[in-house]
Amino acid sequence: MYHMDHLLTMLTTEKAKELVFRAGSPPVIVSDREQHSLQGPPTAGEDVMQLLRSLATSRQMRQLRERGTVEFVYTTRGRCPFMVRAKMEDENVVFHVS
Question: CA quadruple 94, 5, 31, 63: dihedral positive or negative?
Fold first, then answer.
């Protein structure tokens, strides 16, 4: 299982532009117009949802369920803010962190 704290650290240290989470594949890191899948197992739909829950408030998760999309800024002490964009695709959530 992937841990969001480690992934956000990697996003910052690699100076990447974005992380993309989608069921059925490992997280993808985007940098300089190139996309690279991280080495590791594919994520199941519930794994992607759990990773998003680690960033989102219950209000933001409710908005995703009700509207099918949510966008918010995630901040944590000692780090720059991250933009999170999530949407429902069929039965699964897809989200981007930049």
Answer: positive
Cα 28 from Cα 49, distance rounded (Å): 16
Condensed to tens digits (0 to 9), the pLDDT of residues 20-74 reads 999 999 999 999 879 999 999 999 999 999 999 999 999 999 999 999 999 999 9
**69-74 and 28-31 as β-strands: parallel, antiparallel, unpaired?**
unpaired
Bridge partners, residue 73, by sequence = 83
90 CB burial (10 A radius; 0-12, 13-18, 19+): exposed
pLDDT at position 3 over 90:
yes
